[in-house]
Write a structure and sequence with these properties.
homopentamer, 283 residues, alpha+beta, Alpha-Beta Plaits, eight-stranded antiparallel barrel, 10 helices, globular, disordered C terminus
Chain lengths: 283, 283, 283, 283, 283
């Protein structure tokens, strides 16, 4: 708690990623009007979540066979996230979606520079560490950071066409161990790392969420861009940055095309009307 | 046995974690009165286990697709635990639950300081190590520890809303190996580790259980809190503590919302009454 | 972006590999004329994709039980690739194909020598790095590379009988870390690596695609040859090359026999007409 | 063969562990008299195997969801083991058992001290290594060991209530490699390791079987005790022993409660008669 | 190509291993005469493959639950192998076999000593490396090796009762890396390794196949013996040999009992006629 060896974070949206396989065979076997009704119910639910100020939602058409549909959910807190999860599970569409994997995290800003400054300022004020006054002063300085970052913290899901998600850890190897570095070393590495990221400004929107205590990796990274090659170039360049080259461990990558909630029925129908299927398939 | 290189442990509840996927499709296809009867049977069984002084039980709604329902079972000994497992397996509800994973462990207090003191005291008394007298004296001193810790050892499952579970090991790497450290080194590391934990006092309730010989990791950690961000901040801070930074290996994390046994029928119904499902789904 | 520590790449085709198990049991249970119709629909679709100048497609009969049929898709961009994926998913044949795995990547030429030359040339011209003039000059020099390599970049799938695919990474070990090498070291290693590859000229056609940001490995390698032993000898020899011996990590290998789209119906029928199956199999 | 760098082993029972999930849903759907007949057939078969002098069998109720029933089979040789496997597969009960995993091994005594002594004695006798006389003398000395250890080699499955199984390897790391140690170093480490084991004499019965060439780990370890905490304390203490701390790699742990073959019908029925299931479950 | 740092190999049979689970439940539900017809069709096909001079086939009853039946296929080239695979897939029996895993490889002799000698001889002749004359001379010397080894290269599957298969790699660790050793070091290590193997002459028949470029490991090893303990003793002894101790990485082991194609119907029936199954099992 307010450990000077540990950077503070600002936390905002609770986030759930869910990756599904879509059961085309059973979907196509439904009558067309039933398909329309199921799609419409889902679309209405998704639209509400995407427009509500306490939630956000983005559907992604995933490339390859890791899954067909990815849903990115934002909610204000775990209660709202759990309720959203259940609400989507209760959709009739859910019968045609098989979950493949998920990711639970909380949008965060990692404050390396700001944490160091807060600790420095409190030292200047000569407040006794961990005293009530010290905690109150800390609260105030941190709250000021949160206000300044409010737009980034509570931003909505970027509506760009191409999408990439991957979880990651900082390495805890036997010789190369991020968590055994000093605060100053980590701060310097994160600063250089940020420099590369910023050189892609405008080309890509990045959302970092923390998942320590929530899921199997330490962070989730969502990237949104207008050109998918941006992901390839950015992430390849970052691999040579020392913070990544030495200390990053990457989980599985998911890539796809974000679409608007309005297009959900079209997405579902796209694979459901093969010419030959007028006779139901023998099973 | 009473090896001075090995810390003693005090052991209490036998614990079983079981994570299930809930088969909403088949559940929703049941008639409403049948669903009510099945839910009621399960609720009655769970309530008995949660109130019985020889058992405890907590249901958790899991976030994400690792599973839907987690049951934490406590019982006095493996016989009672096995019987409980079978009793829950015999519920009609079990037909709608697909097991995803489980964890078998025993609640423990790891006595680093106390073990060192017991060995020291017996050396002072100049008892011959491993003699009957020595064993008897050891028994008495250990029993005194157990009495003093009885409330922690036999405490019931904390009834806080947010829940996190993960298994962990102490690293046995080629260069960095917990089990090759001296007793004194380990004792010092665990003391520092405990200091961080204690700074979260009141914010989080932690239950450590040992699983050496029972399951695939060495310990299971249950955390209970009123704010899920506590998990994120605590575990992130602990990563920088030397005992964790250098020596901890973490298994998969499960997080969710604990609910009371009374809410079980509502939990099961929440996803079973979609508007569109009045006509049974074509399979 | 145009980091002198990072080699530029030229990027062309968006590529999707999809590996399927073929459900022979359900296929054989179809009436012969239905099988013929389904096969014909798929063949027509595949033929169009294989002949279209904005797409390419190769079907491969896979050896062993990792899968039965591999489809290699080329498309101009992720939009076209996603559309192709959906179009094939909508085939009636898709009901008899169970996806096993996939790979998303973009054909690339890694410019080690050319990137170094471009940076050198811009230094000679004394342009301010990252100035608009510098970027424009960079664009022009890179475009010249792309023109010169156009045939290799936009080449169609090699029509050779034997096929091999594997994904790979450059190692990021604690001591042996490709991404911690200097540009010059990497350039020298890649030059030697290329020398071995070129000694197989004529015997094998190699297609490298980059997947950083798209899939779980950094590169995909497709090899096409007239003799499958070429794969064995080439890859074995490459293991001793320093770039591979020290720095390559290999994913799973898939090998098989490419066939022409015309042969698709024969491929599907080959296993569908067992003599004993005149009576439908009891299930 | 009789390599002085390699300890000899004495080998006896061929052992098969099989872990099954029990399909309660389908079992409970059977008529009660059919369940009784199926259970009785299995019990008769198991009883014969458990009493036969050329076989042994132990059923274990497994804790947690790794499986429900574990069968430990002993047979004299692989022919008998294969035949036993098939015989159990042919039981009607087998329709309700889904195999989860298995382990194939041969009970062994690893002769570190005795092998060294045999080699020493043959050197004293100045027999030419690997000559017929030398081999004959080796045979005789080894046979004498086998006679002396006959009770341990051909002992029957210990009938203690609590059960634990895990497979293990000796580490072959890049710096820490058991197989690169000298004979004398390994002999000394195994001697210390044995000392801890022996301090649990009476509390636990241990069966070591070798699986090099048969299964994915090098050894299987079965532990039998009257108190499950014995497993926890013994294995935890052994982790600090140098042979384990530095060189042991552990596979998955399975724990449970051994029951007698007579109790098989009760075990199967325990979960089959839920009050609510009088109406067959809707599927 | 003919790299003096790389040992040449002689390559012969294309080999496919396929491991299947046998679906006893569905098999037993077939009428007896249908089972007989299906078994006879498979036996006829297997017999043809086992007797044909361009193919070979061995069925193995696998111990444990990794699978029930392993088929080892030999064919002259990938075309023949692919055709064989399809032909077996088209058997009615295939409906009762679920593939678990497979292995694609090519029988090889690794020529460490001979490659060194060929290079030495060509240096003596002072032929310009990689000139047409040099290549022709190389061809001739290699062909002479192949002639001399023809019986080993094109030998048929050894008909011994006990069987063991495992894939393996040479380690490419960060410090311990086979592919970074000099030719001479590797040659010396392989020579010592071969000495142990030869001391088991007569007791075991070993078939090495290379799978670089074909499957996920570098080599497959098939062992055939009259006593299964031979596998245990040989492989255990080899673990201490430096080539294995330091450089070998082992994949999963499969062990079982080879049977003759004539016994296939008996193998299939062994588990299909339980006494209690006269009434068809309720599903």
């Amino acid at each position: 708690m307010r450990n000077p060896d540990v950077n503070e974070t600002l936390d905002s949206w609770s986030i759930l990623h869910r990756l599904y396989a879509f059961d085309r065979r059973r979907w196509a076997a439904l009558a067309a009007d039933r398909r329309a009704a199921v799609a419409q119910e889902a679309q209405a639910c998704f639209a509400q979540l995407a427009e509500d100020q306490d939630h956000d939602l983005a559907p992604v058409q995933v490339l390859g066979t890791k899954g067909d549909l990815l849903l990115v959910h934002y909610a204000r807190g775990f209660e709202a996230l759990a309720e959203t999860e259940m609400r989507v599970d209760a959709l009739a569409l859910n019968d045609y979606l098989t979950p493949r994997s998920s990711y639970v995290s909380v949008l965060e800003l990692g404050l390396y520079d700001a944490s160091a400054k807060i600790h420095a300022r409190l030292r200047e004020r000569e407040l006794t560490p961990y005293s009530p006054d010290w905690h109150q002063a800390f609260d105030e300085l941190l709250a000021r950071q949160a206000e300044g970052a409010s737009a980034r913290l509570w931003g909505r899901i970027p509506r760009r066409r191409y999408y990439c998600f991957y979880p990651m850890n900082k390495r805890r190897g036997e010789q190369v161990n991020w968590y055994a570095l000093s605060y100053d070393e980590r701060q310097a590495l994160m600063r250089d790392h940020g420099t590369i990221g910023r050189s892609y400004h405008g080309h890509v929107t990045q959302v970092i969420s923390g998942s320590t205590g929530f899921d199997d990796w330490e962070w989730g990274v969502d990237l949104y861009a207008d050109d998918p090659l941006t992901f390839k170039h950015l992430i390849y360049e970052l691999r040579f940055d020392r913070a990544s080259a030495l200390y990053a461990e990457f989980g599985p990558f998911t890539t796809g095309l974000q679409f608007s909630v309005d297009e959900l029925p079209a997405f579902l129908e796209a694979s459901a009307v093969p010419r030959l299927r007028s006779q139901p398939a023998a099973v």
